[in-house]
From TrEMBL:
Gene name as annotated: nirK
NCBIfam families: Cu_nitrite_red
Domain Cytochrome c stretches: 382-470
PANTHER family associated with the record: ALCOHOL DEHYDROGENASE CYTOCHROME C SUBUNIT, BLL4482 PROTEIN-RELATED
SUPFAM superfamilies: Cupredoxins (SSF49503), Cytochrome c (SSF46626)
This protein's name: Copper-containing nitrite reductase
Origin species: Pontibacter mangrovi
Amino acid sequence: MKRSTIQKSVVLAALGLYSIGILSSCSTQTSQAETTANTEEATPKELPVIQAELTDAPLVPAPIARKHAAKVVVNLEVKEVVKRLADGVDYTFWTFGGSVPGKFIRIRQHDEVEFHLMNHPDSKNPHNIDLHAVTGPGGGAASTFTAPGHETVFNFKALNPGLYVYHCATAPVGMHIANGMYGLILVEPEEGLPAVDKEYYVMQGDFYTKGDFGDPGLQPFDMQKALNENPSYVVFNGSVGALTGDKALTAKVGEKVRLFVGNGGPNMISSFHVIGEIFDKVYTEGGSKANENIQTTLVPAGGAAITEFKTDVPGNYVLVDHSIFRAFNKGALGMLKVEGGDEKNIYSGQILDKIYQPEGSTLQEMPTASAPKAAVATNKEMRLELGKTLYAQNCQACHQAEGQGIKGAFPPLAKSDFLNTDVNRAIGVVAHGLEGQIKVNGELYNSTMPKLKLSDEEIANVLTFVMNNWGNKGGEVTPAQVDKAKKSFKH
Ligand SMILES: [Cu+2]
């Protein structure tokens, strides 16, 4: 604003309309006039004071209805807390508001924010905050260094609309971010965002633990892994399974869904994708321009994106970082459950599954003659050996390396009561796939296991391998048993 005042003065001076004396007294007036102009006609002299509503992910505060600027008071408390990172795995998170990601803050362009940062007396470290929505030194970090048990306050004016990341910027910065110190602040444009039916808050982050993915217990931070940019976990909303099972996001067929997507990093860039959906609109990098018809959008570390789509077909849509090992092996997987009537003209479901018989005499010779013969096990040892490879190729992506599954998404095969009480039923599941609700070790799963293209021999081998590992009851499954069980399977 100062600069524009000066520019105006220079223009006026150049026009020769004012003497130097008049100019200096005039320039203060101009700057006052501009203050009012920038906060709009409808704004009263004293801005109304509003307490900001803050929410935990995946919820976001209600859209802003007011048509004028306000003074918005934000109270954000830093807490260092031990919480679940994955099943059986705990981590000491440093948080803005008690969870990862930090509280969602929603304000309007031209608002004046009075920002209070409190650091809980039980904290072991000082913290501060750098909001990317702030124009000023350190995005607020320079004014908010806060010792445990202290509170700091600063004001800022929201000049630019957009979706912005905030994070802690206290040294060692990487470690504070790696421990979960990030969140999103939305600065709505004056005219607001177009109305939608559902809005959700999803934020990715990478975590570095001494143990590998799934190693149980309270896991300490591993600086070397962080330096190597080799995360043990990449997750949405602070833990494996934060958005699956009964915590899945929900929508009805025909609804417009808006996802406020952030990436805290500290290291990884997210290739954000929703399996089975196309984003009708993406405000790339959280800015004001919308791109249309996007499959995967890049969300940089310390960046954000707003994605919008209409749900057309019921089913489970899987949110992933499409750097896909992160999704299936490091936790970056969430779910959106869409309920409502089928739209068979948009998606039919499977309408055919039959043997493909090539026509023409030359082609007909080809298949069996030249196809390499699949290995056949002649004893249990061989079955276990072949089954191990089959498991890694066909099952591990979902049921995980140790058969532990992913809570809420993929049931465990390790110590699975479903499997151990009825092996023939398990054969049926592997042979035909499975849909609908089942209970495994007391947990409900309502998802889909695809029909895999495996021969009786291969099913026998992979299930023999599963039955003899991870605390299952042992035994051997033969191709003859598979053939029989397959035929009698009903679900
Ligand atoms: Cu911090």
